[in-house]
Amino acid sequence: MRLATIDVGTNTAQLLIVEADGPALRRLHAVERFVRLGEGVDAQGRIGTAAQDRLLDALRAHVQTAREQGADRVVAAGTSALRDAANRTAVLDAVRDALGLEIELLSGAAEAAWSFAAACAAFDDLTGPCLVVDIGGGSTELIAGQNPSAHHPRSVNAITARTSLDVGCVRLTERCFSSQPPPADEIERAGRLIDAALRNAALDAGPDPTLIGTAGTATALALVHAGPDSTWDALHGGGFELSRRDVRGWRERLLRLDVDAIRALHPAAMEGRADVFPVGVLLLDRVLSHYDRDAVRVSPYELRHGLALRWLVENSSSTAGASP
Question: What's the whole-model pTM score?
């Protein structure tokens, strides 16, 4: 069974093609397109016409790629920007009418659960407490779990606590920064908003949790840190570790650079995200500080992989009964 999954996020629309072989998934092909669907949603509460057009173009290309790759089924899901937009129903209807593609609107809980399962699937040594951080464009998901490697592929059953913070790299960039590089007072304001969100969440991650970063910001920072000539492969490669000192150093450097200089650090990794990347790294730095972690392990697997895991669990008699 060959499955295509599409994650429609605030900044990107991501496609993954996998081969389901019994209880395992083999990753075959991945494409990331930048649609900035959440542009203006924080201020206006609606997805604009230009963003809708970008989304349709990206999804049309993804559906075509899925066909070319021999996908037997396409599963699509939307997250923060669609959840927050007053006109989400009209956007979903437009996609269905134009492409025949149904986009499931994921709850924050479901998004967190399957992001956690995906992030943990890249490792087979996760024992004890773990904390997954998924920094998106509109929100940041924090998911705590216990001994997830023992539960794969039903890693959602390892979850002990989760929360969704109303801070993401697109949302905070639009809300706080007037330029790049931003002035000191705007950086301080963004930091205060992040710290307040973390304090208010009061998530118990357990004693000495392993911190795992997943999705765009964490993966992009790993690529930037490794350099454009690195052979680390975010499609098939294993995890990548960044120390707290590494993250803090990149935070300080990025907040002093303009967008062109950020893009030049790693053109492929920064495509479509250079202007919001500094806030994403600021978020990751504040999470490391809040939970007093010395390092973050970067997982190359993200929500689109989680959507495939969910399909696998729901359609395999040997793994039936998982939730949510």
Answer: 0.83
